[in-house]
Amino acid sequence: MVRSSLLVAALLCVTASFASEGYFYGQSGHLKFFGDGYGGSGSCSLNTQPLPEWVDRLPKVSVSALNYQGGVACGMCVEITRLDTLETYVAYVNNKCDTCEEDDIAVGASGSMTKINWNTVECPAHAGEFVFRATSEHRLEVQVRHNALPTIAVHILNHDGVSWSPLTRENNFFVGVSGPYLPLAPTITLLLTSSQTEKELIQNVYWVSEGVITSHIRKVRVPSDVTVVDVTTSNVATSTAFAQATSTSQSATTSQSATTSVLGTSTANVASTSAVATTSQSATTS
């Protein structure tokens, strides 16, 4: 009994919370129950393609409009601790709760509202998956799914091979409709920035007009001191550290295969899918 009381006291006296774009630590709110059937993929548009098995195994929750951050929270994994039972579990954010207060979380189940603490945590499994919607040579709409932490920015490599253009977030998709990366080449190179300002280089991603590209390309981590900004003002080509990271990725072998799943659309622009990856499976560590 004494131990339980101490645990409750420790949870209630949590240190100051911290929140940044796509990352939360030490949040305190309420777990709200809206009955079976509540939720779905709603605002996150995650139902455009099937989700992997590990996502199906996790409870699905919705966060408040403030925590949703315009779609950044979509696909985020959160660790929730109920203060009434001290039960802790990991859940998957797939929707927005418009009636929730900041730091509240909603779930589609029956129960009584209870206080909780919660944090962003790395998802239990992640591999490069990109969902394309309404994409053509002159328009790019891509959803980045199943990264360890939420992706807050995506840049695309321009045709000159050294400069980058930012894609614009529209809810849970990153969209490009004008820039020196159009018309799209058969493969594109993307630079993802996570919620902890870590950057990962993803090369040779085959795009499709509608569908999902799943690949196990090794993600090359770019040093945190590298800054990527709009090509109209500067670019990342001047960074020796970035050039080294790019060179390391390009020099890797190309024996790893990838799986392409296209639902009811043409695959004319998808060449040999065995060439999608730029590294061997033995080099894959993520």
Walk me through the topology.
Blueprint: H1 2-12, E1 18-20, E2 23-25, E3 27-33, H2 53-56, E4 60-64, H3 65-68, E5 77-82, E6 88-97, E7 105-107, E8 114-121, E9 129-132, E10 140-145, E11 151-157, E12 164-166, E13 168-170, E14 173-176, E15 187-194, E16 199-206, E17 211-214, E18 220-222, H4 240-250, E19 259-261
Parallel strand pairs: 3-7, 4-6
Antiparallel strand pairs: 1-2, 3-8, 4-7, 5-6, 5-8, 9-10, 9-17, 10-14, 11-12, 11-15, 13-14, 15-16, 16-18, 17-19
What does this structure look like?
- The chain is mainly beta and 286 residues long.
- It is 10% helix and 34% strand.
- The chain contains 4 helices and 19 strands.
- The strands form 4 sheets. It has a 6-stranded mixed beta barrel. It has a 6-stranded antiparallel beta sheet with strand order 13-14-10-9-17-19, with no helix packed on it.
- β15 and β16 form a beta hairpin.
Strand content: 25-35%
Number of strands: 19
H/I helix tally: 4
Distance between the termini: 42 Å
Structural class: mainly beta
Rounded mean pLDDT is 72
Give the % helix.
Answer: 10-25%
Q: What's the order of the H and E elements? A: HEEEHEHEEEEEEEEEEEEEEHE
The residue ranges in which pLDDT falls below 50 over 5 or more consecutive positions are: 1-16, 232-246, 248-286
Largest sheet: 6 strands, mixed, barrel
User: What's the arrangement of strands in the largest beta sheet?
Assistant: 3-7-4-6-5-8
The rough form would be described as: elongated
Radius of gyration: 20 Å
